[in-house]
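Quick start: what a row looks like.
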Amino acid sequence: MSVLIAPSILSADFARLAEEIAMVEGAGADLIHLDVMDAHFVPNLTFGPMIIRAIRSLTELPLNTHLMITDPDTHLDAFMEAGATAIGFHLEAFHEEERARRASAILERLEQAGLERFIAVNPDTPVDWVYPYLDRLDSVLIMTVHPGFGAQTLIADCLEKIPRLKREAERRGLSVAVGVDGGVNLDTAKEVVAAGADMLVAGSAVFHAPDPPAVIHTLRAAVSPV
């Protein structure tokens, strides 16, 4: 399976959003990554369902919607109705005593709606937190920066979670893809893929570059099998 390239629209020029999306789509992006932040679970505030609905009208690419928000279950319907293809959330958003119940309920609702499901894992969170849910996930998103801001440096130690996660999935006969989000660029992509990543989320490395399509093409070449 080839590695998927997912430009993170958070780093795009929102005054030229239609052009930016068309640009990365034309350059061969596999999906669009949407970082939803609520200024509560994380310190930054980004966008919500209204922007996702607008993005849905601009592209047929899958929309990978990463909910970095408190109480993702409360807002789930709005994001589903906006046109998200895949929705992911953080177990860290829940108190320990209610985590299993609320996470399971979200996964069930997404499954019933026919959407892809993923859980994102913060740098300080043990990867085995997601093990109880592996059989209900399409993918896991390993955060290699602390969520909330773009243009951070990749925390290399987080990459150790990828082979551990894949070994556990293989042991259980499951097929679960692994994405990496944070600090992915032309300098780190090969290291990330060597660790076993199936998807690369890249924001500032793409949209802040002088030639974003060239970055996508170079990333593709860097992570493609020889």
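That is the whole record. Residues 4-223 form a domain with the TIM Barrel fold (CATH 3.20.20.70). The CA atoms of residues 96 and 102 lie 10 Å apart.
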